[in-house]
Design a protein that fits this description.
Elements lengths: L1 E3 L5 H4 L3 E5 L3 E13 L3 E5 L9 E4 L2 E3 L4 E3 L18 E5 L8 E7 L3 E4 L13 E6 L1 E2 H5 L17 E5 L4 E7 L3 E4 L10 E2 L5 E5 L5 E8 L5 E5 L4 E5 L6 E2 H4 L18 E5 L4 E7 L7 E4 L10 E2 L4 E5 L6 E5 L7
Antiparallel strand pairs: 1-3, 2-3, 3-18, 4-17, 5-11, 6-7, 7-10, 8-9, 8-11, 9-10, 12-16, 13-14, 13-17, 14-15, 19-27, 20-26, 21-25, 22-23, 22-26, 23-24
């Protein structure tokens, strides 16, 4: 798989800026990243850029039980940013103890957002600031008619995009008549939200290489991501900067299952050219412990996670954990 990074220095140079005026002026640096996906490959992709915010403001009332955020005088048209399954939008907290958390908007009135019932709003206060921005969808990422992808009424002949759900993958393909469809249900899937933390899999059939481009705003805060116990999570490299397995810092979190037996500890799966490589952190390897490749036993902490790539996080039983990633660049 070839990778082409056209604006990897946007976070440092901030040459391309865009202003959006709503409740308050919001200026985020923007850029793009392109990855060449070879034919007959499966590639794990991520979304290191986000949509430019539609609204930036401070909360005036937060209810962590009811999962609501109110901003007096916001003046929204009801459900202009909802519901998530047809008009997906994200709330990102940009100040306070909950900074870096993302929430899905279920519905809203003129001044009150109702978030997904699973939203972890711990530590959020009435004065915290937030952004609202659109979530990516299959339509926004690939186009309603998927130019450049193999389209076919038969999903086994079309290119597939796999999105991880709570317990399994949803396979989507573009039908020349009906557009994006969910293979298992046959329902339209072009407006299904793909959140900024999610990785996706692109299964490319024949027909030559395909260039996948992600563009938008650079994240301006640290970012928090939850990894529940006993669950497989498709996790994207959330910043437009390459990192490593050690750089993610999952092994440093209290609750990350470590040890010498890869079948009972937490795993990290990294996509190669044709398969997944399973890694685990062996706390007994030496005084500090080490990430190891399950198949070879070799140290693997330096394994690269490029811009625009995603990994699979396999949690065993234990406790839910939260990764709080520091922003890896300085903004002006």
């Amino acid at each position: 798989m070839k990778r082409s990074i056209f604006l990897s220095l946007v976070v440092a140079s901030c040459l391309l800026l865009e202003n959006r005026l709503y409740a308050q002026a919001a200026t985020d640096p923007v850029g793009f990243n392109s990855i060449t996906v070879g034919q007959n490959t499966t590639t794990a992709l991520s979304l290191p850029f986000n949509k430019v915010p539609d609204f930036v403001a401070a909360a005036t009332d937060v209810d962590t039980t009811a999962k609501t955020i109110q901003t007096t005088g916001a003046g929204w048209a009801a459900n202009a940013f909802a519901p998530f399954f047809t008009n997906p939008h994200i709330v990102r907290i940009v100040s306070g103890a909950a900074i870096g958390r993302d929430f899905r908007i279920v519905s809203h009135t003129a001044d009150t957002l109702t978030l997904d019932a699973s939203s972890n709003m711990a530590g959020m206060l009435d004065t915290d600031r937030y952004q609202i921005f659109p979530s990516e969808t299959l339509n926004s990422l690939f186009g309603p008619t998927a130019p450049g992808l193999n389209r076919n009424a038969n999903p086994t002949q079309a290119d597939n995009v796999l999105v991880r759900g709570t317990a399994s993958w949803a396979t989507n393909y573009n039908d020349p008549t009906d557009g994006w469809l969910d293979q298992s249900t046959g329902e339209p899937s072009g407006t299904v939200g793909i959140t900024p933390d999610q990785g996706i899999l692109l299964v490319r059939r024949g027909g030559g290489d395909y260039v996948f481009t992600d563009l938008g705003a650079v994240p301006i805060t640290n970012l928090k991501t939850d990894f529940p116990q006993s669950k497989v999570t498709s996790f994207g490299n959330r910043f437009p900067v390459a990192t490593t397995v050690n750089g993610l810092g999952l092994h440093l979190l209290a609750g990350w299952n470590k040890g010498p037996n890869p079948t009972i500890v937490d795993n990290l799966l990294v996509r190669g050219s044709s398969s997944w490589t399973t890694l685990y952190f062996d706390s007994t390897y030496d005084a500090d412990g080490e990430w190891l490749d399950q198949s070879t036993g070799d140290p693997a902490g330096a394994t690269s996670i490029p811009i625009g790539a995603s990994v699979l996080v396999v949690r065993r039983a234990g406790s839910d954990i939260t990764l709080d990633q520091a922003r890896p660049y300085t903004l002006p």
